[in-house]
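Thread title: Can someone regenerate the structure for this chain?

I was given the following input by a collaborator and told the matching structure tokens would be attached. They weren't. Posting the sequence so someone can regenerate them.
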Amino acid sequence: MESWREKALRWIFVAIFLAVIEVIVRLNLVDRIFLTSPSLIAVAAWDELFSGELPSLFLLTAYEVAIAFIVASIVGLCAGYALWRYPLLGRAYDELLGALFASPLILLYPILLVIFGRGINAIIAMGTLLSMLFVTLLGKVDARLLSRE
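Best answer:
Regenerated them for you:
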């Protein structure tokens, strides 16, 4: 059980950290392109909260996540099953999938922007790619476990 002192120390650390960032930005030690002040972030968040735009943005994000999840689940589970069902295919692509899983796939986002343009399609494609690889590996492992039963 966490004591009140531990909670207080954690909040004091957070407050000091935010104050240091605020001072660094206010003294122009870091360009505002790279770091913005926590007070400006708080004001912008407060304005967005009461502008009425936040619920629609939340619903748009939930829609993007749902579509990416559905596509990644369907394609990833089918690919994982195929990799399990056909052992030659599984052995051929196992190392490639492992290497892709360890690579920074976020670097593909500029390419997706070129292909899909700026909008929700590029975001859905990125979410699908990021999760499809994980679902494929998980589907392959689950198929192996199911075959043992």
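The longest helix spans residues 54-85.
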